[in-house]
Amino acid sequence: METQHREKVVVVFNPAKVDEDELRELVTAQAPASARVEWVETTPEDSGYAQATAAAQSGASLVLAAGGDGTVRLVASALTGTGVALGVIPAGTGNLLARNLDLPLSLSDSVRRAVHGCDSTIDVCEARLHWADRSNDVMRFVVMAGVGADAQMIEHTDENLKRRVGPLAYIPGVLRALGGGNNVTVTFTFDGQRVAKKRLHTLIIGNCGDVYSNVPLLPHAVPDDGKLDLVAIAPRGIFGWLRIGGDIVVNTLVRLWNRDPRNVDNQMRVPRPPNALTYDKGERVTIEFDSPEVFEVDGDPVGRVRAAEIEIMPGALVVRV
């Protein structure tokens, strides 16, 4: 391994998601003998941001995030712009970043890749959120964020059920979320130029495209192209949903045939019927809602927002792949 991989390694782990004894055994077996490995638990009050910030400030060259999407997002947020590498050890239900970067999902394989893989850079999305109570906050995410069915599905999914049955726990939330019509009224501006006001069902903005392995909601999204991708979903009745479902199935098959979105643009199916699916791409998007909407980032609902400004931070995060 390179010299920079032989220094201080910090493992930020969620004790509710991983078996600490097994994780310690695997990391100890894979880490170079010269590496100094430190262990830090997440807490209900801080799911990884403070721990990863302290690790970066103390000279760590690699921080392993072992937990669900929330832990990975917060560790990634803290390491953004530091040059410290993130190693992903996925232990949640969605494992969105690991799936989109084609990282191993098993504990042993993910530890091996996180320690011995190569470093690559990806973009990070930064969102300034305007809450329903008129306060503001800034959050970063690495996969996707949105409102509508996406956020409602997550909000209505039972955490205990997720632990018992895994991804199947999302099915009741999906059915409940899809039951509504185009109830979200939003005005969005892309790169300060293109302005549209739409009534829609779901709005997704992201840096990665797959909501599950090889199932692309943002079929042209590339994690290191310096661009945000957006899809506005506004079906017209049952036939609109059927057409959207058909397009997603076709895009999934294309992705399975050729996994790199940069090589499949001409084969991906895009908006049909008119206005049911609207795709766009840019560096900054501003969205304003007629009434506060539940907003999710990387699989976690974070509250109701009135508006958000989201911009891309090109190549801001080093990830061990």
Give an overview in words.
The protein folds into 2 domains: 115 residues, Rossmann fold; 191 residues, Tumour Suppressor Smad4 (Sandwich), CATH 2.60.200. The protein contains 9 helices and 16 strands. Strand 3, helix 3 and strand 4 form a beta-alpha-beta unit. Strands 1, 2, 3, 4, 5, 6, 7, 8, 9, 10, 13, 14, 15 and 16 form a 14-stranded mixed β-sheet that branches. Strands 11-12 form a two-stranded antiparallel sheet. It is α+β, with helices and mostly antiparallel strands and 321 residues long. The N terminus is likely disordered. Helices cover 28% and strands 37% of the residues. One of its GO terms (molecular function) is kinase activity.
| Rg from alpha-carbon coordinates | 19 Å
**Intertermini distance:** 14 Å
Can you tell me the residue ranges where pLDDT is under 50 for at least 5 consecutive residues? 1-5, 267-273
Please state the structural category. alpha+beta
CATH class annotation of the largest domain = Mainly Beta
- Categorize the overall geometry: globular
Name of the CATH architecture of the largest domain: Sandwich
Please state the average pLDDT score. 85
Q: Estimate what percentage of residues fall within beta strands.
A: 35-45%
Layout of SSEs?
Layout lengths: L7 E6 L6 H11 L5 E6 L7 H9 L4 E6 L1 H11 L5 E6 L5 H5 L6 H10 L2 E13 L4 E6 L2 E5 H7 L3 H7 L4 H9 L5 E7 L3 E7 L1 E5 L3 E3 L2 E2 L11 E6 L3 H21 L19 E6 L1 E14 L2 E21 L1
How would you briefly describe this protein structure?
The chain has 321 residues and is α+β, with helices and mostly antiparallel strands. Helices cover 28% and strands 37% of the residues.
